[in-house]
Design goal:
single chain, mainly alpha, 7 helices
């Protein structure tokens, strides 16, 4: 059954190609648009970065509570794999930057390196290294749970 709105022709974005206009219209109608008009693989803009900072600040008590609870539990295999992957990425980043830590790099340099690390050949290298690092990460987790450190 056709609705009245289906019969109205409205130019939502004059000057845009028809395909883009149609997709935007469908997103609005179906509610699939989360209110953000960005693709997930793009870097955050300054405004988005500031918004995230405000959100984190607002929810810092909840985040701290979640961290505390997670620290009491032994990490699952998926979490350990994620940690291994992050450690492998960091190791390769340090190799690329000749031992300059991520914190000391400029935003542009970080973005350039991230782009390089997201390439398929680098991803396979990272995965291979993460697989090798997994036992070390697991060992560190077991040591943490046994009370090897003063935490």
């Amino acid at each position: 059954m056709l609705k009245f709105k289906d019969l109205i022709t409205v130019d939502y974005a004059p000057g845009e190609p028809d395909e883009i206009k149609y997709r935007r219209h469908r997103k609005r109608r179906t509610g699939l648009d989360g209110g953000v008009d960005e693709s997930p693989d793009e870097a955050l803009s300054m405004a988005q970065r500031l918004k995230k900072a405000r959100d984190f600040k607002r929810n810092r008590a909840k985040i701290a509570l979640g961290r505390k609870r997670a620290a009491r539990r032994v990490a699952s295999k998926e979490v350990l794999q994620k940690r291994a992957k992050r450690a492998a990425r960091n190791k390769i980043l340090l190799k690329i930057t000749k031992d300059i830590p991520r914190g000391e790099l400029t935003i542009a340099r970080k973005a350039e390196i991230e782009k390089r690390l997201d390439k398929p050949e680098m991803k396979t290298r990272i995965d291979r290294l993460a697989k090798k690092m997994f036992p070390l990460i697991r060992k560190a987790e077991m040591q943490r749970k046994r009370g090897g450190s003063s935490e």
